[in-house]
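B., you asked whether I could sanity-check this one before it goes into the benchmark set. Here's the sequence:
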Amino acid sequence: MRYIALALFGLMLMGQATAHQLKTAITTVLFNDRTGNIEVMHKFLLHDAEHAVQQLFDKAGNMHTRDATRKQFSDYVLTRFKMTDLDGQPLPLELVGYQVDGADFWIYQEAPIPAELEGLQMQHKALQDIWSSQQNLVNVEGRGAIQSLKFSAADDWQRVRFAQ
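And here's what the prediction gave me:
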């Protein structure tokens, strides 16, 4: 019985180590017709964000205690996420805020919904300059069925079209 418990404990530790190896961020692009805005919510593992800040900017960077560190990471992400209409016209995304929430770091942006928008083009390069294995998933909601884009380091611009 003791050996089974030790084996299970070992498997749990391996599972945690493997799960921690995943370099993935999730972004939701939500069309909120009530507010008239496109709301963008970026979710990063706090551990990954802290390691990125320490590699890129400040070895002593601390996302838990320093707002300057949180802002620095937020600014970094905003330069690596771009969104345009299908003609390549940038959408004026503005920073709404950012926060630590448990094991996650969230960044919020928004832009007015353009009058005649047939789809979006996006680029999401956050953390891929640090880790080539970084995957950035973008889910687009509120314009028909949810559409998802997966960005690896080799990807550039991708697009979604909305049903007419």
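One thing to flag: The beta strands are 24-32, 37-45, 81-84, 94-101, 104-112, 119-124, 135-141, 147-151, 158-161. Otherwise nothing jumped out at me.
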